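Structure ticket #2291
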Amino acid sequence: MSNSMIRFKGFEFEHNPETLKITTENNVRYQRIVNGKDIVSQYGRSPRVITGEGSIIGADCMYKFLRLFRVKEQSGSGVLSVPFTKPIMAYFKKLDFLAEPTPELITYRFEFVEDCPENRGIPVKKFYTTSASEDLWDISYRFDVAVEKLLELNPQIKRPEEVMRGAEIRLC
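Resolution: structure written out below.
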């Protein structure tokens, strides 16, 4: 898997899961017309579903799992960053234990579902001033600019998650 980590609402998975699956479907309708022919029409797509399985290891594995559980229990959607894709808004739908927890190993499964708002109509801006608890992952999603590009345009920022409140971020 890529060096970039899975992130959701400011929580970064310490290690990427062993498995990751992203499912997307087009909504298709079949109609039979009078002369016996079929018409196939596409009506957009269904929300993406992101699932995976992983392990948390170490003496503090229960503490780390509980941190993940608290993030899952938060209401509302948030920015989900997954390797190889642009960040999306998603809901943390499910978090399961897969096996009996041991003192140094917890195995888990998760599921996120994309929040599919219609076109947000965000105006093009050259700069953006950050608010509390925003990082480059959030800004990347909001303005559809790759995190790598934001880092390139803002050399004063060394890590995407270390952005100060009120910082002026160059977008293009």
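Closing remark: The helical segments are 61-73, 136-143, 147-153.
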